[in-house]
Amino acid sequence: MSLAPPFTRETANAKVKKAQDLWNTRCVFTISDSSPLVDRHRNPQNVSKAYTEDSVWRNRDKFLTGQAEIVEFLTAKWNKEKNYRLRKELFAWTENRIAVQFWYEYQDSNDGLKWKRYVLLYHARPLRRHMGKDHDARDADVSRCYGLEDWTFAQDGRMRKRQMSGNDVEISEAERWFTDGVDVNSVDISEKHW
Q: More exposed terminus of the chain, fewer Cβ within 10 Å: N or C?
């Protein structure tokens, strides 16, 4: 099955899951036959090959162009975001565009390795509306927003544009969805998180 445009529901969903798997893949290096070393970092160079040489990204407040900037960005991202686990789901598609909702969890190396969940911005609802009229947003320990990532593809199937917005949410160990050994696709994510 070709994962290049024009997309069908089947090929768009396969493209989303392929991207999920690529971003979740860890590098494994062997020092010698008797001493294997597993590098738990992602491979930005490998991930960048899924994008055109002149791919344009907006990731939060960062604007990038081209594979070299993508590699630099992903290297810094994954130096900060340890034990990264990602899930992507197809939201909508057209002939050469796909909208994706995603969630990922990681430990923040700049914040004492606290677990965090990342969710996209879609509907920014007032916090007070969902926590009761007497709750002040300043009192909240955790906030969440929901949303989409927008991808546009070249005819060869590589992504030529990626637009994304999102927020980090601190979570406890008990709140984690994507724990060690769990297939991220098997986690039941309730409607309130979609």
A: N
